[in-house]
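Quick log. Single chain, no ligands specified.
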Amino acid sequence: MSMKVELTKNYLMSMLDTSHTLAASLFDAAGYPWDILEHIARFITEIGPTLPENEYKKIGDGIWVANDAKIAPSAEIAGPCIIGHGTEIRHSAYIRGSAIIGDGCVVGNSTEVKNAVLFDKAQAPHFNYIGDSILGYHSHIGAGVICSNLKADGSNVVVRTSEGEAIPTGRRKFGAIVCDYGDVGCNSVLNPGTIICAHTNVYPLSCVRGVVPPNCIYKTGGVVVEKR
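-> predicted structure:
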């Protein structure tokens, strides 16, 4: 398998199974995956009132929660927000709004989510920040992983590959995309515009930027090897 990544819309979209998110139509209408970020809040306010009343309850202004979701009393949730079936929002989690959290997800202790989409089965269980980001189906980020969403100089985020390709996102704030079955080790930082492609693992304590190819391991020092 070649480790070269073609930074095309179809290639990146193929890393996210949109059958596992309520936001499928958002992705279908988008160019690149990050294009959906500016539409999350509007989408929630439109789709929320149409959710089945026997499956979801409205618990606040623009907040819809599946009946079988588990919300810790200490969690704080701001709208607009949708939380799916069987999802756990644990102690002291902070949902800042504009968040679509799918079925079977975990948003854990002291994790903060803002303007983000978590596909079904995504897990952010301990001390995470997920801002202006997307976590794909069955993705997992370890304790202390941060999706940094703002460059130090405040300029717009550009997505880059190791081959030197670059695509401007037009966004001042854009964190990371962890694609389907991606896994990021504890205390790693995903710099603005980072994309972890499908079935790729990142070592703990990594500082990652750019696009990491699919079916790979991102090792200490930024060394990337194919899985065997």
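Residues 9-226 form a domain with the UDP N-Acetylglucosamine Acyltransferase; domain 1 fold (CATH 2.160.10.10).
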